[in-house]
Predict the structure.
Amino acid sequence: MSMLVEKSLIYPTIYLLEATTTIVVTKNLNEHILDNLLNSYKKYFAVLAVFLTVSPMYWIAYIFPRDNNLWVFGGYDNAFDGNAKYLFIYVNTQMKSIKAVWIAKDKSIVSTIKHLGFKSYQKNSVFSFFYTLRAGVYLYNDTYQNINIWNSSGAVRFNLWHGIPLKKIGHDIENKDVIYHDGCVKKRVFNINLYKRSDYVLSTSPFVSDIFSSAFLLSKENVLNFGYPRNVLFSMPKHEILSFIETYEPQKTKELVKKLNNYDKVLIYMPTWRDNGLDFIKASGIDFESLDAVLVKNNFLLLLKLHHHTKIQFESFNLNNIALLDNSLDVYPILPFTDILITDYSSVYFDYLLLNKEILFFCFDLDDYLCNNRKMYFDYNTFTPGKKIYNFIELLKFLQNKENIENLNYSLQRDEILKKIWSNNNNEKSLQEITRFVKIISKLKD
């Protein structure tokens, strides 16, 4: 249920806490909660007390001088991947006037980035605190919480995001259990990233921008159709991709890519995670030993890459032609060397369209997913350009015959979706447009 709070009651709160939405989203709102909510907004002195005592750093950061040539970056779930990674590498190698710094929670990520010759510091360290307070620009894959919430005020905050949504996201989620604001001042202060939006969000087409404008509560002028840096590899010749891998990717990726040449076909299975946290791999009925036997017979390799949030544990995974990829591995340098994507409701298939390769949609729990997880922006059957497979037996039979793979041809359907999603698919140009815009807008903010 949504409600618009009386404006006269919340102006002080907006002024002090820089709230950018007055929409209150809650589940099962009753009269008692409503009364508490309105009373909390009337208590101006409580907000003032919080302003003076709980979050002074957020407000001090507003008046701290910013360096427009200092840009800080952060990853989704604190990983070194996604749009932020590829933009970070581009800025470091092509823009010598910009000082780029990556902030991460994980010491191993900091060490990896430093080993590449770039600057990186652990979140909450002294150096991280200094750079996030001085940086004129924040660039991140999801939320600036991965860099530093409290030091971000006064900087340009650019959300590079991490995928084109098939599932509803942000403020468009209808069956959310999350309460964006329940009248608790303390919650509002300590979760300020829920209320203070990014200044800009990266998009790939006007069609996608309409979705992001609604989901992130931003005007369309602040949703920028520059394309995704992480897809820069997709337009490169293979030898250039291999050179990139050799320079920037871990040893596991290098060894895997070399191994792929030994197979007739390389398939990659990338299912999305389920909001309910259930073991969907078990629910799918996949018999990995039977699947492995078919793959060995046809000299196919199946790569299994689970979503970051998926917490499924495999007791053993000692199979010949199925490889379970590390969750932390950046899959984008690997995708150009695969032949077919198998997925369900993951937005990765939108990126895969740029490779002009076939996609199988293994949607064994479609009805359950739509009922118990997030709703979708589009009709699933019409917006997924590939063969639909509804159970494991069907998948196994399909893969048994090599001709089934060779006869797949959904190119017309892919082209139709491609035009809607990727109006800007010149990835090299994407990097240039983003950096050019950021340089201009950061100077205008002075």
User: Anything to note?
Assistant: The first strand starts at residue 2 and ends at 4. Confidence is low (pLDDT under 50) at residues 1-29, 178-183. The two ends are 40 Å apart (CA to CA). The first helix runs from residue 7 to 17.
